[in-house]
Each structure stands twice: as structure tokens, then as C-alpha cells.
Specification:
The complex is a heterodimer of chains A (about 1050) and B (about 375). With about 1050 residues, chain A is α+β, with helices and mostly antiparallel strands. Chain A has 23 helices and 31 strands. In chain A, the strands form nine sheets. Chain A has a four-stranded antiparallel β-sheet. Chain A has a four-stranded antiparallel β-sheet with strand order 3-2-5-6, with no helix packed on it. A four-stranded mixed β-sheet of chain A has the order 9-11-12-10. In chain A, a hairpin with a 4-residue loop joins strand 30 and strand 31. In chain A, helix 3 packs parallel to helix 7. Chain A is globular. In chain A, about 55% of the residues are buried. Chain B has about 375 residues and is an all-alpha fold. Chain B has 23 helices and one strand. In chain B, helix 2 crosses helix 4. The longest helix of chain B has 22 residues. The termini of chain B are far apart. Classes of the chains: A alpha+beta (about 1050), B mainly alpha (about 375). Chain B: This is Acidic fibroblast growth factor intracellular-binding protein isoform X1. Chain B: InterPro entries: FIBP. Chain B: GO terms for molecular function: fibroblast growth factor binding. Chain B: One of its GO terms (cellular component) is nucleus. Chain B: Pfam families: FIBP.
Chain lengths: ~1050, ~375
């Protein structure tokens, strides 16, 4: 019932010529929502019609408002024959349905046709009047905010993080319906676009309902995917993390809107005691003795057919009192949840307690036709099965939750591989429960954990480890055990102590597979999977060691299935964590030790590898302070030295013995060269070329070791397809081809972006698909961000200082400070002076000298009080990243000031009417502050051509299409009043060609969060001008940069 | 292993100035790659030839897509498909409309028709500019011509407004349009020594003083209803020019004019005697039939005759040929220094004001003012 949608069609421009005789067009517009259609008058003979229509009003249910897209069709009027369609615009009105987002959609939209692409633009204004509905049984979920961002959005604060929400809808794919044989490709494409739009609307609404049930008000880390199952149907599925968010700028809205205050009051006292208990046990000596570990933290599984996973999940029950307590506490918080999963990859400080390792599960399924779209039980059951498995893997690692969780599929004909992966973790229960009172409690908990290394400490039971592993005492706090290598799917925590810089590490693998049908095919695939997982893992390990690093973040392993092969591509960001031990080198062992020349060859290879490691250490500035002298000489540190080092630090001799035992296994990684395959492996290790100087790359949000971004960003998508020569394909040839493809692609990117040096490619996201027998398609989306070289050096220095300080910090100090801090009781802004100090420093960011001076200043401050500095630094980092926490004055900027400012920033594009819209796969914009989230952008496009050659071949066709997709995303964001898309992702790019018929088709699905950002330098001006202005819901009309 | 498909699309469209230049110059992808290799870019960046090939292809594809928009530059500003910073947009447009001196000299004053387009092959061979580039330049001329041909108002302003070119380039295009419209002959061998700049200079002077647009702005005729057009010469003015003939036809007037000039310049010119001898033909002798070779022309008669003939389209076309034959060549053969030419022309135009019997002072100034400027510009080696 409760909604009135109002649409006004203003004008068109650059329309195509539809009447050859007059070289003009008689255009009119149909506006359709649900089953209601309105039409404008025909505007005769113009390519720039001015309709200036009345307001078309649709009275609709809010359920429909959520599901249906607004459909605008531009047509050419023809008196004698049927009217010709020029193109369409679909507008998702969801952003208008929640109060804080956009209030109006107004702007120029590209008119899109699935055959001709963009054909002119149309100016549209859309508004929604919502009436309040008190119906308890409503099916709509208006008001639930959606974010693609996989962290708490910048201008919000997480009150409660409820947990996993998922939903799935299925339907028949119009492309495969019988009617498709008689309708035009255009009609078929439009039917598909419309259906997917409807389905994603429905999906979002259903997820929203689940969130409301959980008493949340937002979904963060929302990931929606399409499975084009061909004959068997179309699946749209989504996962996300339900949260209760609180907008930071409104101090009054402390309580989440959906929760009744009384309930919170009731529950809040219960939270305190356990939290305090948690703190005290943490400091108890017993705790130190109860570590456990995991390194090959990898679980492979192919549930339907074979299961090659690990323990049954009984591990970790024997933990010490602290662990038991923590577990008990969080388990109670997580118990009611079927799946304690979180799609977030970055967390509020203190949320992540320990990280176990990567857990993943895969399952091979045979697709069958979906008979009843209203009951998608099979697909649901499949995913439930996989999630269950992930959950048990996490349990086996002594963890009760999985973070950085994601799901994906790969489909080839009737075989489908479902994959899920995440990082097993122990979380702080504080965020998971209702009624938590924020404040000084937060501060206390934050300080309670050793900053920068706590998450590395093993969560599982040392005596009952799921894998053979090597444990050492944390190199940072010396108190708890850490594994020698850590793999995770999450972003590097901002407070992690890192040495040097990170780098992109990829493992690439191909396996040939016999062509087979149905079950035989599925069996063949599931037989291959464990081997692939193993090899990918080995490759990652080797490459990591070759880089001299000891941890992987943002790990994403993609297994793609094709007709006659399987492809595996793993991408991650390698990092040297100061808390973990120095990685051993790589040793090569030959099979025939007596052969002289062979031996020589082996030793030659060994030397090459050692040289590479040394070079990489230099390149990525990896020189851990403690044991640097030992490392430089030999890449393979001797076990003796390390144990000696440890002995001097540890108090109990028992532990040392334990460690010595583990050293037996801890020898350098040995590669045995026993056949040509292994030789190839070693060669391929050495063929990865480092990026040219001035370039860094990572697949995480931020590059470890660089945090002084300048404002220039360039988001891009690059697609490559190679055709394999089908003759005598071997695994090796295939591997080489695939490896070259990826390496060449990276090289091309470095070359293209050379003008941005020094810069870093962030969030590098590779997607592999196998569209046909001999074709491999790789799609890369990433963002290049420039940074200031001088300042980069500076931060490295402070980083090293930081870890040095931490190493020398007396433990007692660490224990005492948290208490002092909370007695200070300065909840929202514990260190106002420090904050101002830092802000003024960042305002001078153009002058490196000023920056340097301030950091020198505060490192001397640090000498006196080393745990204070951790906190301040933490804050400093958040400020630099444009986070919300400490900048309330800035938030108070009045809408007027904001609007004014935007106009002022306009001059560079003064003569152009098109406002600049930035796009980035990251959740932030360097040098700027996100002031408002306008809603989710989720768009699906199909483009088809029957004149492939005329459009410049496959490259010309796809190039134009991707450019058009970018344009449509930008136009929608601009119409919402935004100036950027963050957390942008191209989820699908399915390209099919038939050059013989001169045809091609492509489907693209993109999503992201539309936002308004303001440059930090300008913010300061505003905040000084209007320090006390109140923040009201902004009038978007004035904000539109046109 | 072959690359079936290879693309790169940035949110901000990447534009490589060097590749753009190669594309504008009409090089094929492989030629462009070869040239880039020779520029040493591989050594500077450590890239491979394959990378360069892929990069060049990408840029070429982008430029190809942009070309449609560049045909109507305001579209480039309003379009949504390519996000390009304004400064880059300006660069794209300016470079796209830039032309080669060698090319423009071949086409200047010719009818911008299909016929001329067919000759582009020959022009390409002659100038060494690729045919592709010749076509682009020719099409640019034609496009600008078509758009502004029938427009009212200042030619330069119209061009600037519709093609968003820089002031300088707009002026150049104004000259090209003006020359194409009036079909001035510029290709004769005699005129080969003249640069495009020389012609553009003259064109600007003529547009300012001799066209309908010039009249419209003239204070003498403020409420004029005539078309405010910069492209066509003012027919009425050309008609009136016949009246100047009296300056050479009336012998008294001619003698008086000569003596005025001679008196004023005596002792100031290094070529005084030549000037004096050339001012008018031997008193009774048949015109232009002096036995000496090269025949010293009568400067004054030449200039006035040029004016009188301009009513005929054919003679308008030959304006520059006539100016060279009737004035520049005689002076040059007598080795007049430029400064003497200037002194002479100044005095020659000014002295007319002292001729009591001459009634067409304004007309004379409108004619001579422009012609003096042109002649001085044209007078060089």
C-alpha cells in the first residue's frame, strides 16, 4: 500500500537519427512500473526533445517498490508502422526507500539498447513518497540499508554485528524458454535483464526481512551473484552480514532504530562482567601456556563425492580457562546462529581476537532443471551442506566463527562447482550481542589485546593440532604462540605490525581433464580437485617464501571448470608480519646425489633461488629488526640461532624443549626435484617478474607499508582471451600458457599506468573463465593509486620504530595502561589534543617536512609512554584512512557548506556539464572523506551484436561495452547526487562469440556503493567555518554535481 | 597462443599523447609500434614489444571510438561514455583539428568537394603525409566549412563556439574557410614561396575590412539589415572599387599623386629612382610594352587595376597572383628593401587624402588599408 512513485521525463539529447528521410527523430517515452504504463507526448522532429512531462504517479506497495525497477523506454513514433524502440533505462529506486540515502534521483541517463549500445541520453526525475505502515506481517523490508563494502561503512558505527544472512531465488532463464526461438534477440535480452532486475530486487527484499528479524538495520558486505545454469535455470543468490549501524553524525541516534530501548537497557548489564573476566584471564600466566596452532590451515573438501578434509571438529575443547571462557561466551552469542559467518574483511578495532587460518570447501554438483521456482530447495540444500562443512572446519581450528567469508560457483554445461571459503577466527563477543554499551569499555578491550599481534596468536589447542605445524612464541609480545605462516581471506588489520611492504602473490594452475558426460564428468572433476588445491597451496607457499614473507591476506582461490580442463588461480597479498617468525628459505634436493653435473645444476638453481629471496627482501624492504643480521647473510636461518634467541626471552624451560622439538620439522622448505614436472615448478617460481620500480601491487584494500596515498586514482578493467593451440596440449604447456597470460597482463598494466608512478595497484582482482574449449578468459579489475614517495619512506621508519618499541615494551606496562585509560573515561574521543595535532599534520600533507616533524615529535612522546602511542597511532591511521571515529567536528559540516564547497571544487570542469564520478573497488577514497552513502548500485547488462566485424571485432565490441557499463554506473551515481562508487566490483563478465556468424554476446554484472565524498583539505575549511552547524538530513537536490 | 581479445578500459580514459600523435599522423598500428620502439620506450620502461603492441591497439581503439565525438566537439563535452578531464578533452580536440602546413598549402583556396578529395592521393605522395592524415585534415576543413558557411556573426567566434578550438586555431580555420569560399588561387608557382601564415594574415585583414560582416560593424552603417557574414566579400564594396580607377585614368590626378609621394619620400628611399620610374608608365608610351625585361610595372596602375577588376569572380580568385605580379615582383626585381616598401605604401595611401579632386577617400582607405597590410606581409623571399 504505502508508496507513491513520481516520475517526470524532462528531456532527451543526442538521440539517434531514426528517420533517414529527415535525419531526425519523433521521440516519445513510455514509463512503466509494475503493470502501469504512462506515455509522454511525441516530440516531433528533434534529436534533442524537450518533453517536460507532467508528474507520472504510480501508487504501489512497498513490496513492489523494492522488487520492481522503473522502466523507461524511448521510442520513435511512426504513423504507419510499429514504433521503433530507441532504447531503455532501468532505474533501481531502492536508494529512495531509506531515509538517510538519496531523496531524489535526477539526472541524465544513457539510453541503452542491447543491440546498439548507448543511444543518446534522457533526463529523468524520480521521487518516492512513503507512508508509514504498521502492518506486522508485511513482506517488504524498506529501510534496511545495503552496503557492498566489506567493512563497517565509514560514516557509521557498528552497534551490533548480528551475522550471516543469505537468500537465493531461482527462475527459468528466458534465454532458454521455448519462446526465445521466435522472438528477437533484443526482446530476449530485455526479458533477461528485466527478470534479473526483478529477481535481485526480490532477493534484496527477502534479505532485508531476515535482517529485520534479527533486529538489525543494515547489511554490510552484501554480495549478490548470478549463476547462469543454462537449461536448468537462473539462480540469483546473495550473502551478507546483518548489522545494527548507527550513523556517526547524529549524536541523538545512539540507539538503533529497530531495537526497543527497554530491551537494551535490560541486557546491557549482563555484558559487563564477562568482558571484565575476559580481560583478566588474558593476563593470566596460564593463558600463555595454552597456545595451539595450525599452518597448512587449508581444508579441502568435495563433499558430494570425496571428502579429504580434516578432523571432525572435536579439537580445541581442552583449552585453558581463558579460552574456555571466551569460547563459552562467544558461543552463546553465536549459538543461535546457524552459521557464524561474516562477509566482512575488515573489522572494528577489537573485534577480531585470533585468526585460525583459511577454511574452504568445494562441492561438485550436477545441475538439473529447477522444477518449481518458488521452492529452490535443492540449491539451498547444496549451500547449506557446504556452509556446514566450513563451520566444522572452523571448529577444528578451535574457532567459532568464520570471517572474510565468500561463496562462488563455476559452471560448465551441467556440472557446477560450488565453493565457499573464509578465515576461521575467534571474535570478541562484545559486538555480537544485543545491548552493548559502547564507551570506555571499548577502549579497555582494545588495549587489552596486544596490539598488532593478537590476531596472529593461535586459537586452537596446541596439543591437538589439526595439522603438523611449527609453533613459536610470538615475535612481538613473546607471550603466546604463533604459527610460522598465516593464511587468511581478510584484509590486513590496520593495527598489525608489518615489516616492509606487501606484494601480490599468485598461484596459477591448469589441469587437463577428459571430456565426459554427467556423473563421469563430475567424478573426474572431484578427483582432480584435491590435487589442485594441494598444488595451489604448495605454489603459494613457495612463492611466499621466495618473497621472504610469512603471511597471506585476502586469499582468494578460484577453481574454474571447462570442457576439457580445470583452472586454479589463487591471489593473495604477501606480507611479513612482525609477530611471525622469519620464513625459512627454499632448499632444492636432487634425486641422484652422485651425478656431478646434475649436482652442479642443482646448486646453480639453489643459488638462483637464494639470490631471488635476497633481492625480494631488498625490494620489499623486509628487514625485521630483531634478527636482521642473521637474515641478511643466509636466507635459511639456522634453527639454533632462533632457539637461542627464544630461550633468552622465555621463562620456562619446558616451552623451549617443546619448540626445539618442532624445529625438527621446521627446516627450510625442501623442494625435491625428482622429475621434469618438479623442474618446471622451480622454473615457474623464478619466472614471476617483480613489478617495475615505483610499482607495488596487492589484492587487499590497503597496501601494507604504504599509507600516504595522494588523491589520484584510476580504476580499470582489463580483459584478455587467449586461444590455445589445440595440438598436443599437455599440463605443462597449459600451465605455461596460463602463467604467461597472467604475467603479460600484469606487465601491460604496469606499462599503461606508468605515468602514475609511484603508485600501487590495489584490490587486484583476477577472474578466470573458460568460455569455450580452447579459450581462456582472464578479467582483471583493480585501482591504481598514487602515493607520495617521500612520506612512504617516513612511514616505514615509524613502522620499524613501532615494532622495535613494541619488542622492548615491558609487559607490565601493557597491563597497566588499559586500566588507566578507562579511568580517564573519555569515551568518544579519548585523545582530543593528539587528534588535533594529527589533523593539522595531515592538512599540511603537501609539505612532507611538516609531516616528518610531527612524527618525530610523537615518537619522542612514545618513549615516555609506549602504550599510549599504540593507541594514538591506531587513531592516526584511522584518520589517515578517512575513517569516521575521530572526526566528529568534520561530520558537523552543514549541508549548505557541503553544497557550496562542491561548487567551488567544480571549476576544472566548469565548461563541461558532466560531473566527474570516481569509481574504486576499495571502500575508501584516498585523501577524501565519505560523508554519505546513497545506496547500493547493482546493475546487470546484456549486449549483443550481429555485426561484430563492423564494431571492431571482439576487442572493439567488448571495449565499447565495458566503457558503456562504466558510463551507466556513473550516470546512476550522479543522478543519486553522488560523486563516487566505492567497493565497486565486476562480478560477472560472460563473453561469448561466434565469429563465423559475425555475432557476439556479453553479460556484465557490476555492483558498488554510491557515495558522496568531500576532499579532506576542503573539509577542514568547512569545519572551521561552521564548527557548530547541525547535521540534518541533507537535501540531495542541491548536491548534485552537474 | 594468440590473443583473441585484449582490452583495457579505465574509468578515466587513458590518453597517451605520443600514440595520439601517431594515430593522427595516420600510421597503422604496426607502423606506430615500430616508431614507438625506435623512440626507445622499451628501454625506458622495460616493456616488451608485445606489451607495446597491445597498448597501441588499445589506444587506437579508444581514438577510433572518440573520433565520432571529435567530429562535433561539443558532443565530446556532454557525452557520458568516456570520462576525460577537461584539459585532456581540449588537447584531444585541438590536436585533432591541427593540420600540417604542407597539406594546407596544397588545399588552401580549393573547393572542398569530392573532386579535391580525389586528389588527396597525389597530395599525400607529394607531401609525404599519410593519406589517412590527409583525409582527416581535409574532412576537418570541409566539416568546419559546412557548419559555419551559412552562419551569421563573427567567423572566428562561430568556429570557436562550434568546434571549441583555441583562438589561434580558430583564426586559422577562419582563413581556410574564407579562402575556400572565395576560391583564392594559392597554388601557382609564383605563390609557392608564401606560407599558410602569410595567407592567413591576409585573410584576417580581408575578413575584418572587406566582408559583409565588416560593414555591419562599421559605424557608417549601424542599422544595416545586411547579413552579418564574414565569409563573403562585400559585393557593393567590390562594385565601388571601380571608382578608384580615376586615380590612374585622370592624368592630372596621377601626376599630382606621384609628385606628392615623390616629394615626401625624396632622400628617404634607397630605391627612389626606381620608385619614381615605376610610379607611372612613360607619359605617352603604350602601357606594359616597355622594351626592357623584366618590364618594370607601373605600381600605382597595377594596384588600382587590381581594385577595379575585383568585381569579377575570376579576378577575385587571382587576387594574390595579381598582387605578386603587379607589385611584389617588380619591387623585388629592383631589390627594394622591405622598409622602403613600407614607406612607399604608407605614403602612397596617405597622399591620396591630399588629392583635392578625389572623392572616394573612405573607399580608398578600406581598400588600401587592407592591401597595404597584405602586401607588406607578402613581400619577402
Amino acid at each position: 500500500m504505502p508508496g507513491k512513485l513520481k516520475v517526470k521525463i524532462v528531456a532527451g539529447r543526442h538521440l539517434p537519427v531514426m528517420d533517414r528521410a529527415s535525419d531526425l527523430t519523433d521521440a516519445f517515452v513510455e514509463v512503466k512500473f509494475g503493470n502501469t504504463t504512462f506515455k509522454t507526448d511525441v516530440y516531433l522532429k528533434s534529436l534533442n526533445p524537450q518533453w517536460n512531462s507532467e508528474w507520472f504517479k504510480f501508487e504501489v506497495d512497498d513490496e513492489d517498490l523494492q522488487d520492481e525497477p522503473l522502466q523507461i523506454t524511448v521510442l520513435d513514433h511512426d504513423t504507419y508502422s510499429a514504433n521503433d524502440a530507441i532504447g531503455k533505462v532501468y532505474i533501481d529506486i531502492d536508494p529512495l526507500l531509506y531515509s538517510e540515502a538519496a531523496t531524489v534521483i535526477s539526472g541524465w541517463f544513457p539510453i541503452y539498447d542491447t543491440i546498439h549500445g548507448i543511444r543518446g541520453e534522457i533526463n529523468v526525475i524520480v521521487k518516492v513518497d512513503l507512508f508509514n505502515d504498521l502492518n506486522r506481517f508485511r513482506q517488504s523490508s524498506c529501510g534496511v540499508k545495503f552496503f557492498c563494502t566489506t567493512s563497517i561503512p565509514k560514516c557509521y558505527r557498528a552497534v551490533i554485528i548480528h551475522g550471516f544472512v543469505e537468500e537465493l531465488v531461482v527462475n527459468e532463464d528466458p534465454e532458454y524458454q521455448w519462446i526465445d526461438r521466435i522472438r528477437t534477440p533484443r526482446a530476449s535480452n530485455e526479458a533477461r535483464q528485466r527478470l534479473i532486475s526483478l529477481m535481485s530486487g526480490e532477493l534484496q527484499r527477502k534479505i532485508g526481512l531476515k535482517v529485520l528479524e534479527m533486529r538489525g538495520n543494515a547489511v554490510v558486505g552484501y554480495l549478490q551473484c548470478f549463476d547462469l545454469e543454462g537449461e536448468s535455470g537462473l539462480v540469483v543468490r546473495a550473502i551478507g552480514t546483518a548489522c545494527t549501524l548507527d550513523k556517526l553524525s547524529s549524536p541523538a541516534a545512539f540507539l538503533p532504530a529497530c531495537n526497543s530501548p527497554s530491551k537494551e537497557m535490560k541486557e546491557s548489564p549482563l555484558v559487563h562482567p564477562p568482558s571484565l573476566g575476559c580481560r583478566s584471564t588474558q593476563n593470566s600466566p596460564i593463558h600463555t601456556a595454552t597456545g595451539s596452532r595450525l599452518t597448512q590451515n587449508f581444508s579441502v573438501s568435495v563433499p558430494t563425492l570425496i571428502y579429504t578434509g580434516m578432523g571432525s571438529g572435536s579439537a580445541g575443547k581442552e583449552g585453558g580457562p581463558f579460552k574456555a571462557l571466551l569460547r563459552q561466551q562467544t558461543q552463546s552469542a553465536l549459538e543461535q546462529r546457524e552459521f557464524p559467518f561474516f562477509t566482512l574483511t575488515a573489522f572494528p578495532p577489537g573485534f577480531l581476537v585470533h585468526v585460525g587460518g583459511v577454511v574452504s570447501a568445494r562441492s561438485v554438483k550436477l545441475l538439473d532443471r529447477i522444477h518449481n521456482p518458488d521452492e529452490p530447495e535443492t540449491r539451498d540444500a547444496w549451500w547449506a551442506e557446504i556452509r556446514q562443512e566450513i563451520k566444522s572446519h572452523a571448529k577444528a581450528l578451535g574457532c567459532h566463527a568464520v570471517v572474510g567469508y565468500s561463496e562462488s560457483t563455476s559452471i560448465c554445461e551441467e556440472v557446477c562447482i560450488l565453493s565457499a571459503s573464509g578465515t576461521a577466527a575467534v571474535l570478541n563477543p562484545r559486538f555480537l550481542q544485543d545491548g552493548t554499551v559502547e564507551g570506555c569499555l571499548e577502549q579497555r578491550l582494545e588495549e587489552n589485546l596486544p596490539v598488532g599481534c593478537g590476531f596472529c596468536h593461535i586459537p586452537y589447542d596446541e596439543l591437538n593440532m589439526p595439522f603438523p605445524a611449527h609453533l613459536t612464541y610470538c615475535y612481538n609480545c613473546r607471550k603466546q604462540k604463533v604459527p610460522d605462516v598465516l593464511f587468511t581471506t581478510i584484509d590486513l588489520p590496520t593495527d598489525a605490525a608489518v615489516v616492509g611492504k606487501g606484494c601480490l602473490i599468485q598461484a596459477r594452475l591448469c589441469r587437463l581433464k577428459k571430456k565426459a558426460q554427467a556423473e563421469a564428468n563430475a567424478t573426474a572433476i572431484s578427483n582432480l580437485l584435491p590435487f589442485m588445491e594441494y598444488e595451489v597451496h604448495t605454489q603459494l607457499m613457495n612463492k611466499l617464501k621466495l618473497k621472504g614473507m610469512n603471511a597471506l591476506f585476502g586469499l582468494r582461490i578460484q577453481i574454474t571448470v571447462g570442457e576439457n580442463m580445470l583452472m586454479g588461480l589463487a591471489s593473495a597479498t604477501g606480507v611479513y608480519l612482525a609477530a611471525l617468525p622469519t620464513p625459512g628459505g627454499i632448499q632444492i634436493a636432487g634425486k641422484t646425489p652422485n651425478d656431478g653435473s646434475y649436482e652442479q645444476h642443482i646448486s646453480h638453481m639453489q643459488k638462483k633461488i637464494n639470490d631471488t629471496i635476497a633481492k625480494n627482501k631488498e625490494l620489499y624492504e623486509i628487514n625485521p629488526p630483531e634478527i636482521s643480521e642473521e637474515v641478511i647473510g643466509s636466507p635459511i636461518p639456522e634453527p639454533r640461532q632462533r632457539s637461542r634467541l627464544l630461550r633468552s626471552q622465555s621463562e620456562s624451560s619446558d616451552e623451549v624443549i617443546e619448540l626445539d622439538l618442532s624445529h625438527g620439522k621446521k627446516d627450510a622448505f625442501v623442494l625435491e626435484i625428482d622429475d621434469t614436472d618438479a623442474m618446471e615448478d622451480v622454473h615457474s617460481l623464478l619466472t614471476d617478474v617483480p613489478p617495475p620500480s615505483g610499482f607495488y601491487s596487492c589484492n587487499t584494500e590497503i597496501m601494507p607499508g604504504i599509507n600516504n596515498w595522494t588523491s589520484e586514482i584510476q580504476m580499470f578493467t582489463s580483459v584478455r582471451v587467449i586461444r590455445l593451440s589445440s595440438l598436443n596440449l599437455t599440463n605443462q604447456a597449459l600451465n605455461k600458457n596460463f602463467n604467461d597470460l597472467c604475467e603479460n597482463l600484469l606487465k601491460s598494466l604496469y606499462f599503461k599506468l606508468r605515468s602514475m608512478i609511484p603508485c600501487c595497484l590495489c584490490h587486484v582482482n583476477f577472474t578466470v573463465s573458460l568460455p569455450e574449449d580452447e579459450l581462456i578468459q582472464v578479467t582483471v579489475t583493480a585501482v591504481a593509486i598514487t602515493f607520495d614517495k617521500n612520506q612512504a619512506l617516513q612511514t616505514i621508519k615509524t613502522h620499524v620504530e613501532k615494532s622495535l618499541q613494541r619488542a622492548s615494551t615491558d609487559n607490565e606496562e601493557l597491563l597497566q595502561f588499559p586500566l588507566e585509560l578507562c579511568s580517564d573515561s573519555l569515551p568518544p574521543h579519548p585523545f582530543p589534543p593528539a587528534k588535533e595535532h594529527l589533523e593539522s599534520a595531515s592538512s599540511n600533507s603537501g609539505i612532507p617536512a611538516a609531516q616528518r616533524a610531527t612524527s618525530v615529535d610523537y615518537s619522542s612522546f612514545a618513549d615516555r609512554c609506549s602504550s599510549w602511542i599504540e593507541l594514538i597511532k591506531l587513531k592516526a591511521q584511522t584518520i589517515r584512512r578517512g575513517s569516521i571515529k575521530t572526526t566528529v567536528t568534520v561530520e558537523k559540516a552543514s549541508p549548505v557548506a557541503e553544497g557550496n564547497f562542491r561548487n567551488r571544487s567544480a571549476p576544472p570542469c566548469a565548461n563541461s556539464t558532466v560531473g566527474v564520478v570516481k569509481m574504486t573497488p576499495l571502500s575508501f577514497i584516498p585523501g577524501a572523506k565519505i560523508t554519505k552513502y546513497l545506496g547500493i548500485i547493482n546493475m546487470f547488462f546484456i549486449r549483443e551484436t550481429t555485426s561484430l566485424r563492423e564494431e571492431g571485432g571482439v576487442s572493439g565490441f567488448l571495449h565499447a561495452f565495458i566503457a558503456e557499463v562504466f558510463a551507466m554506473v556513473r550516470a546512476h551515481v550522479a543522478a543519486l547526487g553522488g560523486n563516487a562508487v566505492v567497493s565497486y566490483i565486476m562480478k560477472q563478465c560472460v563473453f561469448m562469440e561466434n565469429p563465423n556468424k559475425n555475432q557476439a554476446q556479453c553479460l556484465i554484472n557490476v555492483s558498488g556503493d554510491a557515495v558522496v565524498f568531500v576532499r579532506e583539505s576542503d573539509l577542514e575549511v568547512i569545519s572551521t567555518q561552521q564548527p557548530t552547524a547541525n547535521c540534518q538530513p541533507l537535501c540531495t537536490g542541491g548536491e548534485v554535481t552537474t | 597462443m594468440t590473443n583473441e581479445l585484449d582490452i583495457f578500459v579505465g574509468n578515466t580514459t587513458l590518453i597517451d599523447e605520443d600514440v595520439y600523435r601517431l594515430w593522427l599522423d595516420g600510421y597503422s598500428v604496426s607502423d606506430a609500434v615500430a616508431r614507438r620502439v625506435r623512440s626507445g620506450i622499451l628501454e625506458q620502461t622495460g616493456a616488451t614489444a608485445a606489451v607495446l603492441q597491445s597498448d597501441t591497439m588499445d589506444h587506437y581503439r579508444t581514438f577510433h571510438m572518440l573520433e565520432r565525438l571529435l567530429h562535433a566537439p561539443p558532443k565530446l563535452l556532454h557525452q557520458l561514455i568516456f570520462q576525460i578531464p577537461p584539459s585532456r578533452q581540449a588537447l584531444l580536440i585541438e590536436r585533432y583539428y591541427a593540420f600540417d602546413e604542407a597539406f594546407v598549402r596544397e588545399v588552401l583556396g580549393k573547393k572542398l568537394s569530392k573532386g579535391t578529395k580525389k586528389d588527396l592521393d597525389d597530395i599525400s605522395t607529394k607531401t609525404g603525409i599519410t593519406l589517412k592524415s590527409c583525409r582527416r585534415q581535409f574532412d576537418n576543413f570541409k566539416r568546419v566549412f559546412k557548419v559555419v558557411e551559412e552562419m551569421r556573426g563573427s567567423l572566428v567566434d562561430n568556429i570557436q563556439q562550434h568546434f571549441l578550438l583555441s583562438d589561434r586555431l580558430s583564426r586559422d580555420y577562419a582563413a581556410i574557410v574564407f579562402f575556400a569560399n572565395n576560391r583564392f588561387e594559392t597554388g601557382k608557382k609564383k605563390l609557392q614561396y608564401l606560407s599558410f601564415g602569410d595567407f592567413a594574415f591576409c585573410a584576417e585583414l580581408m575578413i575584418q575590412n572587406w566582408t559583409l560582416g565588416a560593414v555591419g560593424e562599421a559605424p557608417t552603417n549601424p542599422d544595416s539589415q545586411v547579413d552579418d557574414m564574414d565569409v563573403d566579400l562585400d559585393k557593393e564594396f567590390l562594385q565601388d572599387l571601380k571608382e578608384l580607377k580615376v586615380l590612374v585614368a585622370d592624368k592630372d590626378l596621377l601626376d599630382l599623386h606621384k609628385s606628392l609621394v615623390c616629394t615626401a619620400l625624396r632622400g628617404k628611399l634607397s630605391v627612389f629612382s626606381e620608385m619614381e620610374a615605376n610610379f607611372k608608365p612613360p607619359a605617352s608610351g603604350a602601357e606594359d610594352r616597355t622594351p626592357r625585361i623584366p618590364a618594370p610595372q607601373n605600381l600605382s596602375r597595377g594596384l588600382v587595376n587590381v581594385a577595379a577588376k575585383l568585381i569579377h569572380n575570376k579576378d577575385v580568385r587571382d587576387l594574390f597572383v595579381d598582387l605578386i605580379e603587379k607589385f611584389v615582383e617588380p619591387c623585388r626585381s629592383d631589390h627594394w628593401p622591405l622598409n622602403d616598401v613600407r614607406l612607399f605604401l604608407n605614403q602612397y595611401s596617405a597622399s591620396v587624402h591630399s588629392l583635392d579632386g578625389f572623392r572616394h577617400q573612405t573607399l580608398w582607405d578600406r581598400y588600401m588599408g587592407t592591401l597595404r597590410g597584405c602586401l607588406l606581409r607578402l613581400y619577402h623571399d
